[in-house]
Structure formats: C-alpha cells, structure tokens
Design a protein that fits this description.
Length: 163
C-alpha cells in the first residue's frame, strides 16, 4: 500500500532536515551553507516574495519546490519573476529513491498556488546539461524562451501560461 504524501509550507525546523534527509545534497555554493541559504529563503517567504512547498510522508521529507514571485534586490529578472504576473519555479528537488510522482505533485500544487496569486506566466530554470530534467519540464508544458551562460554551465529558461 502506498503511503500518504502530504504537501505543506516550509517552516524553520525543515532546514536541517532537508539536508540530513537528502532532499538538498551537494554544496550549494562557496559562499554559504544550505542552512544559510534556507534561512534566506524562509525570510523571503515571510516577506511574501517566495513560497517553499515541502512534500513528506511517514518516512520523512521527500521533496521541495519553491515559487518565487520577486527576486531579492540585485537579482532582478522581470522575465523570470516580476512580483506581479510572472513567477518562477525554483529549486525543485526530490530525495533520491522518493516515489516518482513527487516532482509532478509539487509542480501541480505550485501551479495552483501561482494561479491563486494571479500569476499569468510561470517560468522554470534548468541547466542545459540536465537532458532528463529538460524533457520533464517540457512534459509539464513549458517551452524554452532564453539561454543564459554562467561561468561553468549554460542555463535554459522555460515558461508557460497558467491563466
């Protein structure tokens, strides 16, 4: 029998669990730890600029997705998230070994939240080296609209209408 999956908003107590339970893995950046980055995200959530959605079951945390309405000052990108009618799905992560439908459930719920906030266009950012991820993003109805070079990789922006 499949376990019941719960979707809920993140809370400060999730920060260490997301790392410990394998939802967030690898090094986030040379400048900050996952805990520091999560504290910043939770602060942005308090300010209404971001929503962090958590998926869990009785085994623990299964995944996380974020909906960014407006980026912090200095990171503005109105094509990706403008604080009004364009928002971005950021940091969709699923714990290794978690049920395959977790990503789909998180994206579906994020889209519902976006519509409730009158978002008309939803964007998604992914590394161009992640061919499996790109295929998944396309299966959700997103279309590529911009390529952006980073120091060590190329990023693809996708978007779709949600109204």
């Amino acid at each position: 029998m499949a376990s019941k999956i719960f979707l809920r908003f993140a809370q400060p107590s999730d920060a260490q669990r997301l790392v410990r339970e394998g939802v967030l893995s690898g090094a986030p950046s040379a400048k900050e730890s996952w805990e520091q980055r999560l504290a910043m995200w939770l602060n942005e959530m308090k300010g209404g600029r971001r929503v962090i959605l958590i998926a869990e079951d009785q085994s623990g945390l299964l995944g996380m997705a974020q909906l960014v309405f407006k980026f912090p000052q200095g990171y503005d990108d109105p094509e990706a998230a403008n604080g009004m009618d364009v928002a971005m799905i950021e940091s969709l992560r699923v714990r290794p070994g978690a049920p395959a439908e977790i990503g789909n459930e998180l994206v579906s719920e994020i889209q519902k939240l976006a519509m409730k906030k009158n978002v008309k266009t939803l964007t998604f950012l992914i590394s161009m080296t992640n061919s499996k991820g790109i295929a998944q993003v396309k299966s959700w109805g997103f279309e590529e609209f911009r390529i952006m070079p980073e120091a060590d990789k190329m990023l693809a922006f996708f978007r779709k209408s949600v109204d």
